[in-house]
Design brief:
mainly alpha, two-stranded antiparallel sheet
Length: 455
Amino acid sequence: MTVTTAQSPPGGTPEQRDAPATAATVLPARERAGRAPRAESRRNLASLRATDVYALLGAGAAALCLTWLLFDRLLPFDGALGFVVIAYTLFLALYALLVSFDEDGPAVRDRVAAAVVQSLGILMLAALAFVVVYTLYEGREALPHPNFYTESMAAAGPLEPLGVGGILHAVVGTLWQIGIALVICIPAGLVCAVFLNEIPGRFSRFVRTIVEAMTALPSIVAGLFIYATFILALGFDRSGLAAALAISVMMLPIIIRAADVVIRLVPGTLREASYALGTSRWRTVWHVVLPTSRSGLTTAVILGTARGVGETSPVLLTAGYTAELNTNPLKDPMVSLPLAAFELVKSPEATYVARGFGTAAVLLVLVLILFVLARFFGGRGPGQLTRRQEHRRVRASRRDARRFGAPGGSSGARAATSGGSLAARAAALARAGARPDAPSVPPFGTTTAPTRSTP
């Protein structure tokens, strides 16, 4: 398509010669008569073509063959780690070469970057699966026994079989310690995150710096801090409460930092709309900011719980180790699942080692259950209601519709909604509905113009 400028002919009237030049569009001639030009086909990036699969398989097979040739025939290389590293490097190079036959430079770089990211994701998933499967495999001898979940190790000696003793004391201790730590950390962490976002200033910047520095705090330092202040300085004994305080020191910075990032992502237009309606700051935070970021705040709590539930050294310093069941977190030693697994695996006895891996497997299942519960209760998005909440909202709407649509109930409705106790409001509504000569009023939300008397 070309754009040309049409000029006035030389022979014409003076008005035509003085007229400005106009632009005209000339369409290119079609290649074939009666057939439209073929449009450029656009590729769907979400789909996977056959050439992509062939390039992946070919690069993988060629990389394995070349690496085997280098290790076995040409060079004196040895070791599984070196084999994997060299094979992966050759795979990326060969994959980029094969893709370059069909795509241009940006597409080649995009494919190589996607291959690197996806391979790293597969590597992390494989490592996680290996840890879980290995833990379950090593603890397979202790997990089938029912006494493993219902008894403590008070009556189980080093030479006792797996049919005697269990980890009930460790499960109870972990639940107490994590429960107390969550009671401390969830309100404190969320309030601190809201403060950092809603009240900016020098002090909030200082607090944010301290929180970011405490995220990398070693766990042994938290245990020593609680041991020095709570046990030595204040004179309390080693207990589950002291261990929960030490775990709270580890969990609190993680929850604050993650919640701070999530609340910062709430659009500012939502706050501005709330303020424009005359809402105060704390009601804006309670009804707008926190519900909008509820899913992210749940993730922040999960991250903090995952950090605190696996701590061993703070529990060992502040709560000690015991083989007996203790249900009182305010006194006497109380053991947790990580500490019990650590102590059991140290033993040279095979039965103790099996109990230790079984304890680690139970800890994994406990963390999974906590994660599922947290996602169930707090994973709904903003504005999503449960069935019970929707039912309550529908019933409240029906009550309002009946109350506002009742004949002769304006004065009573105004008295009932203006203030007073619940009984006074009910009595006012009853009086308004019982008077037959009650004046009629317009429906709720409408206004009437004042009447003007005629002279």
